[in-house]
Amino acid sequence: MRFKVNLLALLLAYQSAAHPHDTFSVDHRRNAEHDINPKEQVIVWVDRAGHTISIEHKHQTPTTTYKNSPTELPLLPNTDNIVPDNIIPDNLLPNLPTEVPGLNTNPDSRFGISYSPYTSYGTCKTFDQINQDIEHLRHHAFIRIYGIDCDQTKLVTQAAKQHGIKVFAGVFDLQNFPDSLHYIRDAATAAGGDWSIFHTIAIGNELVNKGQNNPADVANAVNTARDILRGAGYQGPVVTVDTFSVMLQHPELCAASDYCAANCHAFFDNNQLPETAGEYAIDKARRISAAAGGKKTIITESGWPHAGQPNGRAVPSPENQKKAIASLRKAFADDPDLVLFTAFDDLWKSDNQWTFGAERFWGIQDTGRERERDRE
To answer: In 34, 196, 199, 251, which residue has its Cα 20 to 30 A from 353's Cα atom?
Structure first.
């Protein structure tokens, strides 16, 4: 950048404020202003921030140069040894997104997914079958399981550890509690004493909603479990899971838990469409947190069936399931406190009057591979 000014103009320029630019450059040129009667020509080389690089003095016959007229420019001074004083230190530069080869860009990589280790006939899957399932689900952040039967805590934890993901484990009910916690402790022991494999440990799934236990009993069980698990070395969250409506009615369940854990399915509201499944779930999460004094809420189940009978405006179909899952991903994109329901069709389940013939058909993944594996 070059300015042609006379000595008087240079002195006046010292009184005016500089105009900073965002990068260092000596390549950009500014055309000279109209020069009337200079006695000494001074050429000042500056960078875009207005810092002086060099000054040249020339005595020449006055000429008139207009902004749009061609001008012969002198050679640029050597700037190899010039250190601009406006360079931002590296530690203050923003961290710009960088494309990393092999980076997991799967839309579900921040969400959990629920999983049941049973065949279509309700028998226990082998470790090899579980390991193949977990490999298929490894792009999720964690796997949610529900109980301790079939030695599932140990088997799923071993498979998850191999694939680098965590496990949301739990005891399904309060039968044999607290002895049932031994299965979780044994799973940690089998993992080399690494309790960090567990994302969360849940005490009961919808026990109040099903009428199996009252809220006080469940809250006491959560506190008892936390004491036992802390003594064994686990420092992660301990919660109980129930439906969003129960959590709203009984904030004491949230109070006993390290965060509020609620199952929420828009399909069971007959006014909902699959496109609103995400907003429906996140709205319920916000209401639960508000009722619990601002405590964090994770939606521990949410999905949409791909087959079954309509529930009013909520219609099960493969296309509607895709729409609902897309809606959930979008709604929870900035705050991925969500467990998608569920990995595969649970063909071992049976329906009742509240499930609309859809209880077996919530699987998000390819269900054909599930049936094929059962035949082996």
So the answer is: 251
Catalytic residue numbers? 301
- What count of other Cβ atoms lies within 10 Å of the Cβ of residue 36? 8
CA dist 141 and 201 (Å) reads 15
Contact 244, 268 (CB under 8 A): no
Query: So where are the chain's domains?
Result: 1-99, 112-375
Distance between CA 174 and CA 161 in Å, rounded? 27
| CATH superfamily of the 112-375 domain | Glycosidases (3.20.20.80)
The residue to which tokens 């026990």 are assigned: 207
Strands 198-205 and 238-243: parallel
The set of residues, in sequence order, having a beta carbon less than 8 Å from that of 67 and lying 6+ positions away, is 31, 32, 33
In sequence order, what E strands does 106-223 have?
A: 112-114, 142-144, 166-171, 198-205
Amino acid at 376: E
Report, in angstroms and rounded to the nearest whole number, the Rg of the chain calculated over CA atoms. Answer: 33
d(CA 376, CA 371): 9
Angle, in degrees to the nearest 10, between helices 318-331 and 277-291: 40
Q: Which residues pair with 3 in a beta bridge?
A: 44
10-residue mean pLDDT series, the chain (376 residues):
38 39 36 41 55 53 38 40 39 36 64 98 98 97 98 98 98 98 98 97 99 99 99 99 99 99 99 99 99 98 98 98 98 96 97 96 71 41
Beta bridge pairs of residue 124: 118
C-beta of residue 168 within 8 angstroms of C-beta of residue 200: yes
pLDDT of residue 84: 38
pTM of the model: 0.72
> How far is residue 343's CA from residue 115's CA, in Å, rounded to a whole number?
6
User: Tokens 């109070």 correspond to what residue?
Assistant: 255
Give the total residue count for the chain. 376
DSSP of 198-245: EEEEEEEESTTTTTSS-HHHHHHHHHHHHHHHHHHT--S-EEEEEEHH
